[in-house]
Specification:
- The protein has about 270 residues and is of the alpha/beta class.
- The chain has 2 domains: about 180 residues, Rossmann fold, CATH 3.40.50.300; about 70 residues, no CATH class.
- About 35% of the residues lie in helices and about 25% in strands.
- β7, α6 and β8 form a beta-alpha-beta unit.
- About 40% of the residues are buried.
Amino acid sequence: MNPSVNAGHPGVLLNVQGLSKKYGDREILRELDLIVESGEFVCIVGPSGAGKTTLLQCLSGLSAPTAGRVVLNGREIHETPPEMAIVFQDYSRSLMPWLSVLDNVTVALRSTKLNKQARHERAVAALTEVGLGDHLALYPWQMSGGMQQRAAIARALAYQPEIVLMDEPFASVDAQTRADLEDLTLALKNHLGITVVLVTHDIDEAVYLADRVVVLGNRPTQVVDIVEVELGAQRDQISTKADPKFSSLRSRVYRGIRGEAPTAADAVEG
């Protein structure tokens, strides 16, 4: 069992137990344990090539683990469950350019049991949540990168999932748009009460967004640290990142990614 993964978290929604993943002789993940509590925002960080995306694929049921299991709401995951939605990094390829943004979200709901009117209403509501309620008729090629990613997030929200997995969702946009999307994601999480697991290579982003940051080591990947982030529910890009606690947490996460031992200050913060 990795350090402190089950401490103080009784309301477990997602439970990862002894997860290992190999591709042939290449061992990517080794006996990885992780829990995510209902309503929690968890960010996963680690060195480049550590297998963060592989982990997310296993969490979502898109890739089967070599050993161990992933349990959601008490049920082992073998394929993506209906109460889970995924937002990928490459939003531009996930949107169909020949469909309006409204139709892009509506068509994704065809796999549900909703009738046409209900699908339309849910799509409009989701797009309104992400600030695209006045742009329903636009096509993806008429939209900025930030708007396209908002549309991808809306498509995930339209399923009304309990948990959303996000794979480097803001990596392909400029810094200002990235900050706006971070704030949007926080607002949606707080407003809708959903659970979010986000993989990122950006340490500042992880600390800014998360209730807990899960730090992965080098391959074969295991959890090397779990950092509790106590910066309050209401955060903003200026004052939160100017808080000395933010700087301390960022340093701890960075040291963990580099494989360095925690300092005395980290022990106080943790």
